[in-house]
Amino acid sequence: MIERVKIRGFRKFRNLDFQPHPTFNVLVGNNQSGKSTLLEAISLAVTGRVNGRPASEELHPYWFNRGVVAEFFADRAAGANPAPPTISIEVTLRSKPEFAELVGANDLLQPTGHAPGVRLVVRLNKEYQAEFDAYVKDPKTALLPTDYYTVEWSSFQNVVLAQRPRAMRLAMIDARTVRSGAGVDYHLRQIVGEHLSADEQITISAAFRQVKETLATDHLAGVNTKLADGDELLDGGRVSLAMDHSSRTSWDSSVVPHVDEVPFALAGQGQQAVAKIVLAMRRHAEAAAAVMIEEPENHLSHANLNVLLDRIDTLSHADQQVFVTTHSSFVLNRLGIDRLRLVSDGTVQPFGALPADTVGYFRKLPGFDTLRLVLADRLALVEGPSDELLFDRFYSDQYGHRPIDDGIDVFSMRGLSQKRFLQLAALAGKRCVILSDNDDREQTDLDLVVAGLGDLISDDRRLLFGTVGHGTTLEPQILHVNDVDTLREVLAKAAHVDIQKWMGNNKTEAALRIADSAVTLTAPSYFVEAMEFINER
Fold it and tell me: Are 466 and 436 in contact (CB under 8 A)?
């Protein structure tokens, strides 16, 4: 349904131009990267509502991109007269006959192309220009006075929208918080829409009204007789009781769905999440054209998550577009790495933006946790498990705490391609350092390797080798910068043992003994350089 999403000035997104996959999108990113915000923006533009209420009633100063707002106030303080910050969210839809009435200019800033779509704009209400100017002239806080703003919701044809067009059916399921009366009502309406015809709904409604009238006649009549004997009101009227016939007490508000004979709201959270997802994705003429699922792994065991992912994959089809946010590598592996969209610092990048051979490379790595690189704040990639243990220990000695406490994920590449990981780090916008053995190569050869990586090496991405002449791998590098007797004590080895040979033959055991030792050893120079680089913000 959705071909393009343009977001300007909304929360994390200063200026985003996102083209989702037509059928399936797996959105991954660190906490606060903007995954939920992206889905919220799409829902906001398509429905004009937030938390079930019109956007105008939920408008908040923190909707505006903080950088844009800060620049506005800075420019005002410097004597300039910048335009007030605005928000615009534009959702371009696939060209279909049912969207014909929505066709118009598909870009608010450059209205040249035409396509069907909807647009939500938050801008200063010109009627309050004077009040706004007075406020920002001497603001008490760096927050925009949204009382002076207006929300405009329209089609690309510039027709003001009062409610979501029927053809734009959207379901949003947050598996993180599933216990919600509104959620029950919403999915009940879906069940009604799928399984009852209009005539059946009318018949049930009439029967329900008759039941209420019978209740009033049989059980409230006596109460009303007693009330009639009371004092008159000012106008001579009397108080009596009757059943409420307003829409909020209609029959579908009084019927509660059950799961295995248990009321939906009392079912297990995992069961609620699965039920909501399956109902939303059901193949039916009235099913949602776009389904957004927040973190389906919540509340589910590994086995049940596997079943749910099978259902999602089975129920998805060409006429329905699915967006899934996740922190789970299992979800990513099951739904497909080719469907991956990397969300980071207000950007969304398709995994397919990597070179085709790199995409193929990661796709062939069974069980490899690709998400670790995407979700980490900063990364230190090392040759093997022993290097991982020792980086953690040397970092703790240097800074007094582990790398993970600074948001630095350290893990072993297990001899895999340095170039591929640098490409993925560049796409995800991650600060990354790779530590590698020099393998007895000359410095000129190592310099050529780094130069051959081109712009993959940058201020945020480094490849460091063990010092030439200090040994080919990590173990002799450690021996070179430490006293051999001290190292012998740490490793608990007798004087006749060749320490370098023993460490080379027992890499993991040597790393464990160093990591657990009360003695602080000196880190090799390339480890020191890597720690200082990755510790920088």
Answer: yes
Q: Tell me the DSSP string of 378-440.
A: EEEEESSHHHHHHHHHHHHHHHSS-GGGGTEEEEE-TT--HHHHHHHHHHHT-EEEEEE--TT
Counting every residue written for the chain, the total comes to 537
Query: Whole-angstrom Cα distance, residue 434 to residue 430?
Result: 12
Residue at 161: amino acid letter: L
- pLDDT tens digit sequence for 216-259: 777 777 777 777 776 554 455 666 777 766 655 666 666 666 65
Q: Which fold is adopted by the domain 1-169+289-368?
A: Rossmann fold (3.40.50)
Q: Which residues pair with 464 in a beta bridge?
A: 435
Can you give 141-199 as a three-state secondary structure string? CCCCCHHHEEEEEEECCCCECCCCCCCCCEEEEECCCCCCHHHHHHHHHHHHHHHCCHH
* Best CA proximity match to 330, nearest among 280, 372, 274, 271: 372
End-to-end CA distance of the chain, in Å? Answer: 40
Q: Which two structure tokens, joined as six digits, stand for 108?
A: 């608010």
- Whether pTM > 0.90 for this model: the answer is no
Q: Residue 354 and residue 357: Cα distance in Å, rounded?
A: 8
**Residue ranges of the chain whose pLDDT lies below 70:** 110-112, 175-196, 198, 230-239, 244-288, 298-302, 329-330, 332-338, 363-371, 414-416
Q: Where in the chain is the domain with CATH 3.40.50.300?
A: 1-169+289-368
- In this structure, which amino acid lies at residue 1? M
Q: Write the pLDDT tens digit of every residue in 319-355.
A: 788 888 887 766 766 666 667 788 877 788 777 777 7
pLDDT at 329: 67
Element (H, E) at 86: none
